[in-house]
Write a structure and sequence with these properties.
Length: 182
């Protein structure tokens, strides 16, 4: 019995170590794999913008594209057989997934993710505070609110930096940066 328990303990320990190593590798890969256009756009900005770019790359780029140009850019990263799939983008689907199984009849709809590098996109929101409120309340569409408030703030800073709206040395906070208007 003791051997079985020891064996099970070792398996669990190896699994935990494997998960930790995989997460560290994923984080290191993300930092080094940002699109060159993104790296160029965020040069000179704060570490917050860099972190926002990394979170964006992990969570947002599959819909908004690696460099923020929208769903067409995002689709280019899908497997070829899924690049024109409309299961998630059917116009008659509900706009949220209410913990129901995805099927042909009720599959999730994320609409048409817009380009985020666009003056017109920012004009819709008018201020960093409104953009932040929208992102933190509605994104990612498949699981809104899954990120921390700091991650949402960092993504907002990244989107503002992509659009050259955030002053380079600014760290976006509730007190200072969210007062930016555009």
């Amino acid at each position: 019995m003791a051997r079985v328990l020891l064996f099970l303990f070792l398996i669990v320990l190896l699994a935990v170590i494997g998960v930790a190593v995989n997460q560290d590798e994923r984080q290191m890969q993300t930092s080094d794999e940002l699109a060159p256009e993104v790296l160029e756009a965020i040069t000179g900005y704060s570490e917050q913008v860099r972190h926002g770019a990394e979170v964006y790359d992990l969570v947002c780029s599959s819909c908004h594209g690696n460099t923020g140009l929208g769903i067409e850019e995002g689709r280019a990263e899908f497997f070829p057989e899924h690049q024109r799939c409309e299961k998630c983008h059917r116009p008659f689907n509900a706009s949220t997934l209410a913990n129901v199984e995805i099927s042909e009849k009720n599959s999730f709809n994320i609409g048409t993710p817009p380009a985020l590098r666009s003056e017109d996109m920012l004009k819709k929101y008018g201020s960093a505070a409104v953009l932040y409120a929208y992102i933190s309340a509605a994104m990612p569409r498949h699981d809104p609110g899954v990120l921390t408030q700091q991650e949402y703030l960092d993504i907002t800073a990244f989107v503002l930096a992509l659009n050259d709206v955030l002053p380079q040395n600014t760290v976006l906070t509730d007190e200072n940066g969210l007062t930016l208007t555009f």
